[in-house]
Amino acid sequence: MTRKVSNFSDLIQRVTASCLLNPLVPVRKVVEDDSPYESEENRDEEEQENYHNDDGDDSGDDEDEVLEEKNDDFKEDKMTGLKILKVKQMEVLMEEVFETVSSMKRSYVKLQEAHSPWDAEKMRVADMAVVSELRKLAVLRERFRRNGGGGGKKSGRRRGFGVASVREVVAPYEAVVEELKNEVKVKDLEVQNLKEKLEGVVALSSNGSGEKKPGRSQSKRKLGIQAIAAVPTAELFETTMVQVREASKSFTSMLLSLMHNAHWDITAAVRSIEAATASADKYHNASTSSIVSAHHAKYALDSYISRKIFQGFDHETFYMDGSLSSLLNPDQFRRDCFTQYRDMKSMDPAELLGILPTCHFGKFCSKKYLAIVHPKMEESLFGNLEQNSQVQAGNHPRSEFYNEFLGLAKTVWLLHLLAFSLNPPPSQFEASRGAEFHPQYMDSVVKFSGGRVPAGQVVGFPVSPGFKLGNGSVIKARVYLIART
User: Fold this and answer.
1) Has this prediction a pTM greater than 0.85?
2) Mean pLDDT calculated for residue range 243-262
3) Pairing of strands 477-483, 442-444
């Protein structure tokens, strides 16, 4: 009996220790020395708890299903309402779009009507109206994009598209504005030219009446040129020819300096130029080849440039096209040529070509530059073909070298316009290689001691052409002379 009590006490201690060490949890744990009765009681309690829990779960699921159904109905009603609202917004938006497009069409019609007859004020008002309607369309387009999408990254993209759409709408108008600005620049240059002519005429009239213009530093010769500029004259042609020769000397000096810097063999270059001149002259004397001394290389280079840039001078467009206006309507063509001369005389050629790069003068410059400056020459002088590529593409470089070339091209273009403005036009002539020197038609580029050309001198090669004018005066051809061998 004592032993049974001891065993029972030991069992109680073990159960108590087990409970303390392992608290009760919903999941049943099997203890090694549990009695079968305790296990059954615990199992009954767990089953009862599970039964009650199952009943609670079922009721919660039913309530959740009801709530979900109500939420679905609410969401469906809400989506239907939003769709109806969005459709109404779109209808209103489309009405505004159609109204704006109609207004823009009416404004554009007014803009066209303001062109003929020309009415600057009406054009300005119509122009502002068209721009206003275009901006309204851009705003409506942005509203459409916003209404058609959600938020987040997509809406950010749509905002970007909206900005891009505004730029697309405004871009054509910006291009038109730039064109108008360029036209304004051309008109400003014309106005400046007319102001200079007016000042010259006023100064000349003041000088003729005995009144002195204070602060006027121009010489009588320059004032005379301004007055003569009202009509084409032989004197004006002679003055322009002097400008051509000065510009040719300046460009030749720059080109020769670049050749020295690039370590060219100047003697070989001169021989090449002489050979080209000799082959172009059917009356040349073979014994006169290789005649230029080292310090006279500039004359050979000047001859090369002059021959290239004056080629085609006898044709009304330098043979750039087949125009025959000078033959079909000579009087009108002469007037047009002199008008172009007066308009262009005071213009900066670089600025003009920046505005109108493909005008007739621009095409002339491109053609002559490519004829004078060979690609191999340009690559040797500058290390690249950047300027050649720009000219080939119809553009005009802003380099110092090309700007110097434009100065020469402008003077030759003005001389050409004057030539076709005169009636009769000047007749061009050029000295032949090996020909006798005639002082009334030729002028030596090399100065001799005493100022007189010694006897027995013949033409080594022509440097620049001469002209015989309608009034009988002669502009002498420049030649390089050598002693007869």
Assistant:
1) no
2) 94
3) parallel
